[in-house]
Design goal:
This protein is an alpha+beta fold and 88 residues long. The protein contains three helices and two strands.
Length: 88
C-alpha cells in the first residue's frame, strides 16, 4: 500500500499532473484504507456536490453580469450573487 501512496505523492508533485487522475487514485486508496469521509469528499469533487449548501467556499465564486447601456455610461446589472462552480 505504501508504494501506491508514494506514487500518488510523486504524481501530485509533478508539474504536469492531471487532477482527475489524482482524485481517482486517491479514491482507490481511500476505499482500501476505509477513509469514508475522505472518499465522500473525493466523490463530490469528481461528480459534483448535491446542493449549494454542501458546496465548500472554494467552489463558489462571486459574479456580476453586466451589459453596456447605449444611452448612458452606466452598466445595468442583471445578476449579482454567487454561483456554484464545478470543474469538468
Amino acid at each position: 500500500m505504501s508504494s501506491i501512496v508514494i506514487d500518488l505523492q510523486d504524481e501530485i508533485l509533478s508539474s504536469n499532473c492531471d487532477i482527475v487522475q489524482i482524485l481517482r487514485r486517491a479514491h482507490v486508496i481511500a476505499v482500501k484504507l476505509g477513509l469514508k469521509e475522505f472518499d465522500q469528499w473525493i466523490s463530490y469533487e469528481l461528480n459534483g456536490y448535491p446542493d449549494q449548501n454542501a458546496c465548500p467556499d472554494y467552489r463558489k465564486v462571486r459574479v456580476l453580469i453586466c451589459s453596456p447601456c447605449r444611452r448612458q455610461r452606466i452598466r445595468k446589472v442583471f445578476y449579482r450573487g454567487s454561483c456554484h462552480v464545478q470543474a469538468k
